[in-house]
């Protein structure tokens, strides 16, 4: 007996959460490291500051991902209840809104009215239609806030460690470690951009290069601030 082929589609929230956490952690810690290297040669201070930033950023990003995803879920549920009340209390208005959606899709005349009647006879289908195409809201599963929070937290931890690795391997050669950190971070950013294009749509090398430019530009901002502070702050 032949098995039915299964379609596999990437989860948009998983991809966006991974990119958000990994890129933010990497860029944030890289900027701090570069700013510190230009200001001090005390590797202990660099370790403490970078690890403190890693911890704070990871927890903060995970918490923000949780609360923002939970807010999207609550908004969806609130609008869903409002839409149900409108379907019950003002059915003529809701029927016209359904008609408008199908008219925009090319249905006309009796065919249009038949589609409206079919959806009105299935309240759940009508509700889903209105949520998606009138309000442009997507459902958020009950466990999604926790999943998003954990994924962003873990990705931020991993991303934050990438620029730190050379400093653990070359603790007495801080400037060399900084150069290696930039190269390693650029490679990581390119890999994230490449994966994004492979998973979604786009040219892999262009997506990777775009991610490198955006990420390193933000990270090198830390170097510029450290340079200015070292020159002008007593």
What would your notes on this structure say?
This protein has 234 residues and is an all-alpha fold. It has one domain. Helix content is 80%, strand content 0%. It has nine helices and no strands. Helix 2 crosses helix 3, helix 2 (43-89) packs across helix 5 (123-133) and helix 2 packs antiparallel against helix 6 (144-161). The mean pLDDT is 86.
Uncertain ranges: none
Give me the number of helical elements. 9
Instruction: Please tally the β strands and state the result.
Output: 0
Distance between the termini: 78 Å
Major β-sheet profile: none
Approximately how much beta-strand content do the residues carry? under 5%
Query: Could you estimate the helical fraction of the residues in percent?
Result: over 70%
Which class do the helix and strand fractions yield? mainly alpha
**Which overall shape is indicated by the principal axes computed on the Cα atoms?**
elongated
Domain tally:
1
From N to C, what is the helix and strand string?
Answer: HHHHHHHHH
Rg, nearest Å: 25 Å
User: Residue-averaged pLDDT, rounded?
Assistant: 86
